[in-house]
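Researcher: We plan to redesign the surface later, but first we want a full-length starting point. Tokens attached.
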């Protein structure tokens, strides 16, 4: 078990990280998917007893990744936001301070379905419908395109393993021939159960450690 795992994808060397991130050394780029910033605030407004601090904690996790890999670019594969943030939400106060700490890193995001609710919110992020990077097409929805390997988010894939009475449900990186899906980065994002006989390979994330999934 390890917090990092070297992997080859579409002929390119990448590094998987137990904080649910992928680093592409050839382009000095760190990728995460589905941060869903502001989800906890929305849930509290709707009367759910959700602890505060999700945005702070997730930004701190991103900081540790940036300190470890020292990338030139950070790209979020869609659903940067969970909803349109309101004035006074903690994230809007935290983010400018966090961004100033990492001003040397270019920050970009692919537009996800949740981000469209936040159109016009200015945070100093470059937004794209998709991006091409080396052999990869970076997008939110995991749909194949001709001539490139798609890296996407959106699904929040998880895998459930059970042996006798022991049961494990863990986020996964899901790799297929034309499309690979990163696990969701945000702490409160839930997950979509990957069918046990799904094609491709998986790498499970268990308490920050990485394990190659069953065949």
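Model: Full-length starting sequence:
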């Amino acid at each position: 078990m390890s917090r990092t795992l070297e992997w080859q994808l579409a002929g390119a060397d990448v590094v998987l990280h137990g904080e649910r991130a992928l680093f592409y050394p050839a382009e000095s780029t760190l990728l995460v998917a589905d941060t869903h910033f502001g989800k906890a605030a929305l849930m509290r407004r709707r009367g759910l007893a959700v602890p505060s601090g999700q945005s702070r904690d997730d930004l701190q996790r991103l900081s540790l990744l940036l300190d470890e890999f020292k990338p030139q670019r950070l790209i979020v594969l869609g659903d940067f936001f969970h909803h349109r943030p309101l004035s006074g939400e903690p994230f809007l106060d935290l983010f400018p301070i966090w961004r100033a700490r990492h001003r040397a890193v270019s920050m970009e995001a692919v537009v996800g379905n949740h981000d469209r609710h936040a159109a016009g919110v200015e945070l100093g992020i470059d937004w794209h419908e998709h991006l091409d990077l080396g052999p990869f097409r970076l997008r939110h929805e995991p749909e194949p395109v001709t001539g490139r390997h798609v890296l996407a988010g959106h699904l929040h894939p998880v895998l459930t393993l059970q042996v006798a009475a022991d049961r494990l449900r863990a986020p996964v990186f899901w790799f297929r021939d034309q499309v690979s899906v990163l696990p969701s980065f945000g702490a409160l994002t839930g997950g979509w159960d990957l069918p046990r006989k799904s094609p491709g390979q998986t790498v499970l994330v268990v308490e920050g450690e990485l394990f190659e999934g069953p065949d």
